[in-house]
Amino acid sequence: MNEIYFDNAATTRVSDSVYEVMLDKFKNVYGNASTLYALGRESHTLLEDSRTIIAKSINADPDEIVFTSGGTEGDNTAIMQTAIARKKLGKHIITTAIEHQAILQPLKYLEENEGFEVTYLPVDENGNIKLADFKAALRPDTILVTIMSGNNEVGSVMPIHEIGEILKDHQAWFHTDAVQAYGLLDIDVKRDHIDMLSTSAHKLNGPKMMGFLYKRTGVNFPSFIKGGEQEEKRRAGTENVPGIAGFAQAVKDVSATEKQARQTKYYGFKQQIVNRLKENNIDFAINGEICPDNLNHVLNIWLKGISTYVMQTNLDLAGIAVSGGSACTAGSIEPSHVLTAMYGEGSPRISESIRISFGRYNTEAEVNQLIDVIVKTVSRLKQKEEK
Ligand SMILES: *Cc1c(COP(=O)(O)O)cnc(C)c1O
Protein backbone atom coordinates (compact mmCIF):
# COMPACT_ATOMS: atom_id res chain seq x y z
CA MET A 1 0.00 0.00 0.00
CA ASN A 2 1.32 3.43 -0.90
CA GLU A 3 0.47 5.11 2.34
CA ILE A 4 2.37 8.04 3.78
CA TYR A 5 2.96 6.93 7.31
CA PHE A 6 3.11 9.49 10.11
CA ASP A 7 2.12 7.34 13.07
CA ASN A 8 5.55 6.16 14.17
CA ALA A 9 4.82 6.70 17.86
CA ALA A 10 2.18 3.97 17.55
CA THR A 11 4.50 1.58 15.77
CA THR A 12 7.12 1.59 13.04
CA ARG A 13 7.78 -0.38 9.91
CA VAL A 14 10.40 -3.09 10.36
CA SER A 15 13.60 -1.79 8.76
CA ASP A 16 15.22 -3.63 5.87
CA SER A 17 18.24 -4.59 7.99
CA VAL A 18 16.01 -6.03 10.75
CA TYR A 19 13.93 -7.87 8.17
CA GLU A 20 17.01 -9.50 6.61
CA VAL A 21 18.36 -10.65 9.98
CA MET A 22 15.03 -12.01 11.15
CA LEU A 23 14.25 -13.82 7.91
CA ASP A 24 17.58 -15.61 8.13
CA LYS A 25 17.22 -16.48 11.83
CA PHE A 26 13.60 -17.61 11.54
CA LYS A 27 14.64 -20.08 8.92
CA ASN A 28 17.99 -21.22 10.21
CA VAL A 29 18.32 -20.64 13.94
CA TYR A 30 15.29 -22.43 15.30
CA GLY A 31 16.83 -24.50 18.08
CA ASN A 32 15.58 -24.03 21.63
CA ALA A 33 18.18 -21.84 23.35
CA SER A 34 17.99 -24.00 26.50
CA THR A 35 19.17 -27.18 24.76
CA LEU A 36 22.69 -28.54 24.56
CA TYR A 37 23.08 -29.76 20.98
CA ALA A 38 24.63 -27.58 18.28
CA LEU A 39 21.40 -26.04 17.00
CA GLY A 40 20.40 -25.04 20.53
CA ARG A 41 23.86 -23.70 21.28
CA GLU A 42 23.68 -21.56 18.16
CA SER A 43 20.43 -20.04 19.41
CA HIS A 44 21.95 -19.54 22.84
CA THR A 45 24.97 -17.74 21.39
CA LEU A 46 22.75 -15.47 19.28
CA LEU A 47 20.61 -14.76 22.33
CA GLU A 48 23.59 -13.80 24.47
CA ASP A 49 25.29 -11.78 21.74
CA SER A 50 22.07 -9.83 21.30
CA ARG A 51 21.83 -9.28 25.04
CA THR A 52 25.34 -7.85 25.10
CA ILE A 53 24.61 -5.40 22.26
CA ILE A 54 21.42 -4.26 23.95
CA ALA A 55 23.00 -3.94 27.42
CA LYS A 56 25.72 -1.72 26.00
CA SER A 57 23.13 0.62 24.48
CA ILE A 58 22.04 1.78 27.96
CA ASN A 59 25.34 1.20 29.83
CA ALA A 60 24.00 -1.87 31.67
CA ASP A 61 25.55 -5.29 32.23
CA PRO A 62 24.20 -8.12 30.04
CA ASP A 63 22.81 -10.00 33.03
CA GLU A 64 20.67 -6.97 33.87
CA ILE A 65 18.66 -7.36 30.63
CA VAL A 66 15.51 -9.52 30.68
CA PHE A 67 13.76 -10.03 27.33
CA THR A 68 10.01 -9.46 27.40
CA SER A 69 7.07 -9.45 25.01
CA GLY A 70 7.26 -5.66 24.74
CA GLY A 71 6.79 -2.41 26.56
CA THR A 72 3.53 -3.41 28.21
CA GLU A 73 5.03 -6.50 29.81
CA GLY A 74 8.09 -4.57 31.00
CA ASP A 75 5.90 -1.90 32.58
CA ASN A 76 3.53 -4.41 34.18
CA THR A 77 6.40 -6.49 35.51
CA ALA A 78 8.20 -3.53 37.06
CA ILE A 79 5.04 -2.31 38.80
CA MET A 80 3.28 -5.50 39.86
CA GLN A 81 6.41 -7.35 40.97
CA THR A 82 7.82 -4.38 42.87
CA ALA A 83 4.49 -4.13 44.69
CA ILE A 84 4.60 -7.81 45.60
CA ALA A 85 8.22 -7.77 46.69
CA ARG A 86 8.15 -4.50 48.65
CA LYS A 87 4.67 -4.00 50.12
CA LYS A 88 6.07 -4.51 53.60
CA LEU A 89 8.26 -1.43 53.12
CA GLY A 90 5.33 0.77 52.15
CA LYS A 91 2.40 1.06 49.79
CA HIS A 92 3.01 4.41 48.16
CA ILE A 93 3.93 4.86 44.50
CA ILE A 94 4.65 8.03 42.50
CA THR A 95 3.99 8.44 38.80
CA THR A 96 2.80 11.15 36.39
CA ALA A 97 -0.64 11.94 35.02
CA ILE A 98 0.58 11.42 31.45
CA GLU A 99 1.95 7.87 31.53
CA HIS A 100 1.00 5.21 29.00
CA GLN A 101 -1.90 2.91 29.88
CA ALA A 102 0.64 0.10 30.38
CA ILE A 103 1.66 2.03 33.52
CA LEU A 104 -1.69 3.55 34.53
CA GLN A 105 -3.72 0.33 34.40
CA PRO A 106 -1.52 -1.81 36.70
CA LEU A 107 -1.33 1.14 39.11
CA LYS A 108 -5.10 1.44 39.07
CA TYR A 109 -5.33 -2.26 39.81
CA LEU A 110 -3.03 -1.88 42.83
CA GLU A 111 -5.06 1.08 44.10
CA GLU A 112 -8.40 -0.65 43.70
CA ASN A 113 -7.47 -4.14 44.85
CA GLU A 114 -4.31 -4.09 46.93
CA GLY A 115 -4.61 -0.96 49.07
CA PHE A 116 -1.82 0.99 47.38
CA GLU A 117 -1.77 4.75 47.23
CA VAL A 118 -0.59 6.39 44.02
CA THR A 119 0.42 10.03 43.56
CA TYR A 120 -0.05 11.28 39.99
CA LEU A 121 2.23 14.25 39.39
CA PRO A 122 0.46 16.99 37.40
CA VAL A 123 1.94 18.51 34.24
CA ASP A 124 1.95 22.06 32.91
CA GLU A 125 0.71 23.14 29.48
CA ASN A 126 3.98 21.93 27.96
CA GLY A 127 3.56 18.43 29.35
CA ASN A 128 6.33 18.87 31.92
CA ILE A 129 6.32 17.88 35.57
CA LYS A 130 7.88 20.05 38.27
CA LEU A 131 10.72 18.65 40.36
CA ALA A 132 9.34 20.51 43.38
CA ASP A 133 6.08 18.53 43.04
CA PHE A 134 8.06 15.32 42.90
CA LYS A 135 10.10 16.21 46.00
CA ALA A 136 6.92 17.12 47.87
CA ALA A 137 5.27 13.82 46.91
CA LEU A 138 8.15 11.62 48.03
CA ARG A 139 7.47 9.91 51.38
CA PRO A 140 9.34 7.48 53.62
CA ASP A 141 6.89 4.75 52.58
CA THR A 142 7.29 5.36 48.84
CA ILE A 143 8.50 2.07 47.37
CA LEU A 144 8.40 2.84 43.65
CA VAL A 145 8.69 5.85 41.39
CA THR A 146 7.70 5.19 37.80
CA ILE A 147 8.11 8.14 35.45
CA MET A 148 8.32 7.92 31.68
CA SER A 149 11.46 9.13 29.93
CA GLY A 150 9.49 10.85 27.20
CA ASN A 151 5.81 11.15 26.37
CA ASN A 152 4.21 9.38 23.41
CA GLU A 153 1.52 11.97 22.68
CA VAL A 154 3.27 15.32 23.02
CA GLY A 155 6.98 14.44 23.17
CA SER A 156 7.80 16.11 26.49
CA VAL A 157 10.85 14.73 28.30
CA MET A 158 10.93 14.12 32.05
CA PRO A 159 13.85 15.11 34.35
CA ILE A 160 15.07 11.53 34.71
CA HIS A 161 18.60 12.40 35.77
CA GLU A 162 17.45 14.76 38.54
CA ILE A 163 14.90 12.25 39.84
CA GLY A 164 17.54 9.51 39.85
CA GLU A 165 19.86 11.77 41.85
CA ILE A 166 17.17 12.44 44.44
CA LEU A 167 16.26 8.75 44.74
CA LYS A 168 19.87 7.64 45.17
CA ASP A 169 19.46 7.96 48.93
CA HIS A 170 15.86 6.80 49.16
CA GLN A 171 14.42 3.29 49.45
CA ALA A 172 12.13 3.74 46.42
CA TRP A 173 13.10 1.91 43.26
CA PHE A 174 13.15 4.07 40.16
CA HIS A 175 11.52 2.72 37.01
CA THR A 176 11.20 4.56 33.73
CA ASP A 177 9.12 3.69 30.68
CA ALA A 178 11.66 4.52 27.99
CA VAL A 179 9.65 3.02 25.13
CA GLN A 180 9.50 6.27 23.12
CA ALA A 181 12.83 7.69 24.22
CA TYR A 182 15.00 4.64 23.63
CA GLY A 183 15.55 5.18 19.91
CA LEU A 184 16.17 8.92 20.20
CA LEU A 185 17.75 9.94 23.51
CA ASP A 186 21.05 9.05 25.09
CA ILE A 187 20.19 6.66 27.93
CA ASP A 188 22.65 5.68 30.65
CA VAL A 189 21.17 3.75 33.55
CA LYS A 190 24.27 4.16 35.72
CA ARG A 191 24.63 7.91 35.19
CA ASP A 192 20.92 8.43 35.89
CA HIS A 193 20.63 5.92 38.77
CA ILE A 194 17.81 4.02 37.10
CA ASP A 195 16.77 0.73 38.75
CA MET A 196 14.40 -0.51 36.05
CA LEU A 197 13.71 0.56 32.49
CA SER A 198 11.35 -0.82 29.89
CA THR A 199 11.57 -0.63 26.11
CA SER A 200 9.85 -2.02 23.05
CA ALA A 201 11.44 -3.09 19.76
CA HIS A 202 8.59 -2.10 17.45
CA LYS A 203 8.96 1.59 18.26
CA LEU A 204 12.42 1.61 16.67
CA ASN A 205 11.88 -0.43 13.52
CA GLY A 206 12.19 -3.77 15.28
CA PRO A 207 9.60 -6.56 15.57
CA LYS A 208 6.38 -6.31 17.56
CA MET A 209 5.82 -8.22 20.82
CA MET A 210 9.48 -7.87 21.70
CA GLY A 211 11.17 -5.75 24.32
CA PHE A 212 13.40 -5.82 27.35
CA LEU A 213 13.23 -4.87 30.97
CA TYR A 214 16.48 -3.61 32.45
CA LYS A 215 16.61 -4.62 36.09
CA ARG A 216 19.63 -3.40 38.07
CA THR A 217 21.60 -6.06 39.93
CA GLY A 218 20.19 -5.96 43.46
CA VAL A 219 16.64 -5.25 42.33
CA ASN A 220 15.03 -8.57 43.10
CA PHE A 221 11.48 -9.75 42.67
CA PRO A 222 9.74 -12.94 41.57
CA SER A 223 9.21 -13.55 37.87
CA PHE A 224 5.97 -12.07 36.50
CA ILE A 225 5.60 -14.92 33.97
CA LYS A 226 6.13 -18.16 35.87
CA GLY A 227 7.17 -21.44 34.30
CA GLY A 228 10.49 -22.60 32.92
CA GLU A 229 13.89 -21.34 33.95
CA GLN A 230 14.63 -19.11 30.96
CA GLU A 231 16.20 -15.67 31.43
CA GLU A 232 17.82 -16.79 34.72
CA LYS A 233 14.35 -17.58 36.10
CA ARG A 234 13.29 -13.96 35.58
CA ARG A 235 10.95 -14.53 32.62
CA ALA A 236 9.64 -17.96 31.72
CA GLY A 237 8.88 -19.07 28.18
CA THR A 238 11.00 -20.16 25.21
CA GLU A 239 12.90 -17.13 23.94
CA ASN A 240 11.93 -15.59 20.62
CA VAL A 241 15.49 -15.77 19.29
CA PRO A 242 14.78 -14.40 15.77
CA GLY A 243 12.83 -11.53 17.36
CA ILE A 244 15.62 -10.85 19.83
CA ALA A 245 18.22 -10.87 17.03
CA GLY A 246 16.00 -8.46 15.09
CA PHE A 247 15.76 -6.21 18.14
CA ALA A 248 19.55 -6.23 18.52
CA GLN A 249 19.88 -5.24 14.85
CA ALA A 250 17.42 -2.38 15.36
CA VAL A 251 19.49 -1.22 18.33
CA LYS A 252 22.73 -1.43 16.33
CA ASP A 253 21.10 0.76 13.70
CA VAL A 254 20.55 3.61 16.18
CA SER A 255 24.05 4.57 17.24
CA ALA A 256 24.53 7.73 19.29
CA THR A 257 25.23 9.74 16.13
CA GLU A 258 22.22 8.26 14.38
CA LYS A 259 19.97 9.22 17.31
CA GLN A 260 21.26 12.78 17.15
CA ALA A 261 20.79 12.84 13.38
CA ARG A 262 17.18 11.70 13.73
CA GLN A 263 16.44 14.22 16.45
CA THR A 264 17.78 16.97 14.18
CA LYS A 265 15.87 15.71 11.13
CA TYR A 266 12.57 15.48 13.02
CA TYR A 267 13.09 18.89 14.60
CA GLY A 268 13.45 20.24 11.08
CA PHE A 269 10.19 18.56 10.07
CA LYS A 270 8.41 20.25 12.96
CA GLN A 271 9.68 23.64 11.96
CA GLN A 272 8.75 22.99 8.34
CA ILE A 273 5.18 22.18 9.39
CA VAL A 274 4.81 25.14 11.73
CA ASN A 275 6.27 27.61 9.24
CA ARG A 276 4.12 26.45 6.36
CA LEU A 277 0.94 26.38 8.43
CA LYS A 278 1.68 29.97 9.46
CA GLU A 279 2.37 31.01 5.86
CA ASN A 280 -1.02 29.62 4.93
CA ASN A 281 -2.77 31.44 7.78
CA ILE A 282 -3.97 28.25 9.43
CA ASP A 283 -5.38 28.83 12.91
CA PHE A 284 -3.45 26.35 15.03
CA ALA A 285 -1.43 25.86 18.21
CA ILE A 286 1.07 23.25 19.29
CA ASN A 287 0.08 20.98 22.16
CA GLY A 288 3.20 21.02 24.27
CA GLU A 289 6.23 22.85 22.96
CA ILE A 290 8.70 22.59 20.16
CA CYS A 291 12.08 22.40 21.79
CA PRO A 292 15.16 20.58 20.49
CA ASP A 293 15.61 18.49 23.64
CA ASN A 294 12.12 16.97 23.51
CA LEU A 295 11.24 13.81 21.61
CA ASN A 296 11.24 15.44 18.20
CA HIS A 297 9.45 12.62 16.44
CA VAL A 298 6.13 13.61 18.03
CA LEU A 299 4.20 16.71 16.98
CA ASN A 300 0.75 17.27 18.43
CA ILE A 301 -1.22 20.06 16.74
CA TRP A 302 -4.47 21.73 17.64
CA LEU A 303 -6.23 22.72 14.38
CA LYS A 304 -8.72 25.14 15.84
CA GLY A 305 -12.35 24.43 15.03
CA ILE A 306 -11.66 21.19 13.15
CA SER A 307 -12.51 17.91 14.77
CA THR A 308 -9.85 15.26 15.07
CA TYR A 309 -12.09 12.77 13.36
CA VAL A 310 -12.75 14.97 10.33
CA MET A 311 -9.08 15.83 9.85
CA GLN A 312 -7.99 12.24 10.32
CA THR A 313 -10.57 11.03 7.79
CA ASN A 314 -9.52 13.63 5.21
CA LEU A 315 -5.88 12.70 5.64
CA ASP A 316 -6.75 9.04 5.36
CA LEU A 317 -8.60 9.69 2.09
CA ALA A 318 -5.40 11.27 0.81
CA GLY A 319 -3.45 8.19 1.88
CA ILE A 320 -1.82 9.76 4.92
CA ALA A 321 -1.84 8.07 8.33
CA VAL A 322 -1.77 10.18 11.48
CA SER A 323 -3.12 9.58 14.95
CA GLY A 324 -5.94 11.25 16.81
CA GLY A 325 -4.12 10.80 20.09
CA SER A 326 -2.39 7.76 21.42
CA ALA A 327 -2.92 4.58 19.40
CA CYS A 328 -4.62 2.87 22.29
CA THR A 329 -7.35 5.46 22.60
CA ALA A 330 -7.53 6.61 18.98
CA GLY A 331 -9.54 3.56 17.91
CA SER A 332 -12.38 4.48 20.20
CA ILE A 333 -11.75 8.25 20.09
CA GLU A 334 -11.61 8.43 23.86
CA PRO A 335 -10.48 11.84 25.09
CA SER A 336 -6.72 11.89 25.56
CA HIS A 337 -5.76 11.77 29.24
CA VAL A 338 -2.50 13.52 28.31
CA LEU A 339 -4.17 16.56 26.72
CA THR A 340 -6.70 16.56 29.56
CA ALA A 341 -3.88 16.69 32.11
CA MET A 342 -2.25 19.56 30.19
CA TYR A 343 -5.25 21.72 29.35
CA GLY A 344 -8.09 20.60 31.59
CA GLU A 345 -11.29 18.75 30.91
CA GLY A 346 -13.44 20.39 28.25
CA SER A 347 -10.57 22.10 26.44
CA PRO A 348 -11.36 22.20 22.69
CA ARG A 349 -7.83 20.93 22.08
CA ILE A 350 -8.90 17.47 23.21
CA SER A 351 -11.28 16.97 20.30
CA GLU A 352 -9.52 19.14 17.69
CA SER A 353 -5.96 17.83 17.68
CA ILE A 354 -3.94 15.36 15.66
CA ARG A 355 -0.65 13.67 16.47
CA ILE A 356 1.92 13.45 13.69
CA SER A 357 4.87 11.20 14.48
CA PHE A 358 7.93 10.80 12.31
CA GLY A 359 10.11 7.80 11.61
CA ARG A 360 13.34 7.02 9.82
CA TYR A 361 11.65 6.53 6.44
CA ASN A 362 9.81 9.87 6.34
CA THR A 363 11.04 12.47 3.88
CA GLU A 364 10.72 16.23 3.52
CA ALA A 365 8.58 15.65 0.41
CA GLU A 366 6.13 13.57 2.45
CA VAL A 367 5.98 16.28 5.09
CA ASN A 368 5.10 18.79 2.37
CA GLN A 369 2.35 16.54 1.06
CA LEU A 370 0.96 16.26 4.57
CA ILE A 371 0.92 20.03 4.96
CA ASP A 372 -0.74 20.46 1.55
CA VAL A 373 -3.59 18.17 2.56
CA ILE A 374 -4.01 19.84 5.95
CA VAL A 375 -4.09 23.30 4.36
CA LYS A 376 -6.57 22.22 1.67
CA THR A 377 -8.83 20.50 4.17
CA VAL A 378 -8.85 23.45 6.55
CA SER A 379 -9.65 25.93 3.77
CA ARG A 380 -12.43 23.75 2.39
CA LEU A 381 -14.03 23.29 5.79
CA LYS A 382 -13.77 27.00 6.61
CA GLN A 383 -15.37 27.93 3.27
CA LYS A 384 -18.22 25.55 3.97
CA GLU A 385 -18.72 27.15 7.36
CA GLU A 386 -18.91 30.64 5.82
CA LYS A 387 -21.64 29.63 3.36
C1 LIG B 1 3.95 1.82 22.82
C2 LIG B 1 4.19 2.17 24.23
C3 LIG B 1 4.10 1.21 25.25
C4 LIG B 1 3.64 -0.21 24.98
O1 LIG B 1 4.62 -0.96 24.32
P1 LIG B 1 4.18 -2.31 23.57
O2 LIG B 1 5.47 -2.89 23.10
O3 LIG B 1 3.30 -1.91 22.45
O4 LIG B 1 3.52 -3.19 24.56
C5 LIG B 1 4.38 1.59 26.53
N1 LIG B 1 4.75 2.85 26.83
C6 LIG B 1 4.87 3.80 25.88
C7 LIG B 1 5.30 5.17 26.27
C8 LIG B 1 4.59 3.51 24.56
O5 LIG B 1 4.69 4.46 23.64
Report on this model:
This protein folds into 2 domains: about 15-255, Type I PLP-dependent aspartate aminotransferase-like (Major domain) (Aspartate Aminotransferase, domain 2, 3-Layer(aba) Sandwich); about 255-380, Aspartate Aminotransferase, domain 1, CATH 3.90.1150. It has 13 helices and 12 strands. It has helices at about 15-30, 40-55, 70-85, 100-115, 130-135, 160-165, 230-235, 240-250, 255-280, 310-315, 325-330, 335-345, 365-385, and strands at about 5, 65-70, 90-95, 115-120, 140-145, 175, 195-200, 210-215, 285, 300-305, 320, 355. The strands form 3 sheets. Strands 2-8-7-6-5-3-4 form a 7-stranded mixed β-sheet, sandwiched between helices. Strands 9-10-12 form a 3-stranded antiparallel β-sheet. It has a two-stranded parallel sheet with strand order 1-11. Helix 1 (about 15-30) runs antiparallel to helix 8 (about 240-250), helix 2 packs parallel to helix 8 (about 240-250) and helix 3 packs parallel to helix 4. It is globular, with a radius of gyration of 21 Å. Mean pLDDT is about 95; it is low at about 325-330. Pyridoxal-5'-phosphate binds next to helix 3.
Indicate the radius of gyration in whole angstroms: 21 Å
Low-confidence residue ranges: 326-330
Structural class: alpha/beta
Please, how many helices? 13
Elements, N to C (H/E): EHHEHEHEHEHEEEHHHEEHEHHEH
Q: Which architecture of the largest domain per CATH? A: 3-Layer(aba) Sandwich
Provide a brief overview of the structure.
By secondary structure, the chain is of the alpha/beta class. The chain has 13 helices and twelve strands.
